[in-house]
Design a protein that fits this description.
single chain
Length: about 90
């Protein structure tokens, strides 16, 4: 296969995501019994994941949310003929 003419350059954020994905894949393979990790490797991987991924915490939201809605209704027509002259002219064409 020929070499690439246009080289792909990843930014730091993309490289960090790839490294985190590799750590997660390695832990997954370890949990599935496909590879062995020493306790030191597990601890080092945990420290790296703690630095790379945000720690999710539960947050309780309290307070009252109020919303208001304004509904504008059309004016009442005195009879059907005047309502049709005003509103139905767009739908009949």
């Amino acid at each position: 296969m020929p070499a690439r003419v246009k080289k792909i350059r990843h930014d730091e954020n993309t490289r960090a995501k790839i490294q985190v994905a590799e750590l997660v894949n390695r832990f997954h393979r370890h949990f599935m019994g496909l590879c062995d990790l020493s306790p030191t490797q597990i601890q080092a991987g945990k420290i790296l994941l703690d630095r790379a991924l945000p720690v999710l915490q539960s947050v309780e939201v309290s307070g009252e949310i109020t919303t208001s809605k304004v509904i504008r209704t059309p004016t009442i027509a005195p009879d059907i003929a005047s309502w049709q002259r005003e509103h139905a002219k767009d739908t009949l064409q």
